[in-house]
Amino acid sequence: MVKINLVVILLLCTVSINSEHRQSIKSWNDHVNRHLSRGVEKFAAALNKAIDANRIKDDNKNVVFSPLNVVGLLAVMLLGSEGKSNETLCSFGFNNDQVISKDSEFLHHMFGNLINSIQSGNEASRVKIPELVSANRIFVQNGYSIRPNYAAFIRDVYNYNVTQVDFHDSFVTKDTINNWIKSASRGKINNLLQEPPSDLTEILIAQPFYLESGKTVEVDMMKINNQFLYGSFPRHSTRHFRGTPALGADIVGLPYKVQTVDGSKSEVTMFIVLPHPDVPLSEILSRFTRHNIEYYLDYTMIFYDCTVELPKMKLSSTLNLRDTLQSLGFTSMFNPKSANLGLMSTGRSKSFTDEPLNISKIRTENLNNEEDLSSPANFQEYVKTKNFSSYGLDELRESKNFDNPSLHVTRADHKVEIDISERDTEAAAVAHMVVSYRSNQYTPVFVKCNRPFLLLIRHEPSGLISFWGDVRKPTPSYEQ
Question: What range does the record give for the signal peptide (predicted)?
Answer without folding.
Answer: 1-19
